[in-house]
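Internal tracking record. Fields below are filled automatically when a chain is submitted to the structure queue. Please do not edit lines marked as system-generated. If the sequence contains nonstandard residues, flag them in the REMARKS field before resubmitting.
Queue: standard
Priority: normal
Entity type: single polypeptide chain
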Amino acid sequence: MMRHSEKKSRRLILLFFLMTLAFLLIPASLFAESQTPPTESEEHSIELKTDEEKTQLNMEESPHKNHSLFIGAGPMLMVSTNSTKKSAPSPVMFGGGLGATLFQKMPISAQPRLTFFTNYYLWDGNSAHPAEVENRTALAFSFLLDLNAVKIIRLKKHTLQAGAGISILIRAGVLANGVSSTDSGGTADSTAGDDVSSINNWFWSDAHFLYPNLTFCWLYELPIGWRAGVSANLYIPAGSLSSGNGMDGTIISIAARLEF
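SYSTEM-GENERATED OUTPUT FOLLOWS
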């Protein structure tokens, strides 16, 4: 009877030992499986995900925007080389406008801009010419639309932009203040009202509205992240060149610029 109880106790002790051993070994094996190094395909997937995250992070942290807006204002000189006595000798206007620099992360960026200015014109019977106040016939409201391609170079806080493009000079003439439509015009048989119509027709004839241009700009980065600087533009009169009048009508502009 005693031996039977001892055998039973030994069996219970052995069973308890085996259960304890199993309890310890099974979680260890599961933990080891969870620590198994990733396969080659899994490593490649992790690397790709990491690279994509880095690229996205770099794009988000890039200090330069892909697109920006700017405003500018400054003097504009219109070169007058004609010999008409009543015409203005290269009048200086004041222009102001706005624009945008697009796709700045591309090798070449797009830069449309619109500038507004006004000046006086007279009619000599054949052509429209800039006029001084005392000889004015028409007041022209002018919108100069630039469609440019520019190269952007960044040097720490300094930004340089250089480019070229095509500009369209949109002009609309009205009778100048103090001038009556019945006043005498530029020719013996014309009136001021007739001259205004002739001036407006001349604006859109023989490519007088077309100006190839060159542009340059320097900007400095401000503490708030905006950029301020100076821009310069040269507008070449395609209509004047094609009609044999050389550089008559050339526009040179210098403007202060704020980009944000």
